[in-house]
Amino acid sequence: MTVKPGTFRGMLNAGPNAGQQFSIEGDSRLFRVSDDGKRLAAAIDKPFVQKISFSGSSEPVSRVCTAISNQSLINESVTVGTAR
Asked: Which of the four pLDDT bands, split at 50, 70 and 90, describes residue 13?
């Protein structure tokens, strides 16, 4: 999965920059469903650079992202899980 540029947007709601809007570009993840269909694993296969643009700033902030995994128990209409 690769996020289409300009679709991941938000607003900071706490801290000294509360109210500031942002957008993120450069997210890519791999997904795998377990053989029994009860677990979903999401992972980043290699580190990548993500660019975050903040309202009121002309220069995006770059950060290197990586993750090990994220698994969730899938139970028809309810998803329960933990993130690392």
From this structure: very high
Helix (H) or strand (E) holding 61: strand 61-65
- 34 has which bridge partners? none
Name the pTM for this structure: 0.53
Report which of 61, 57, 55, 43 is spatially closest to residue 11, judged by C-alpha positions.
Answer: 55
The CA-atom distances, in angstroms, between 32 and each of 4, 22, 41, 73 are: 20, 29, 5, 13
DSSP string, 34-56: -TTSSEEEEE-SS-EEEEEEETT
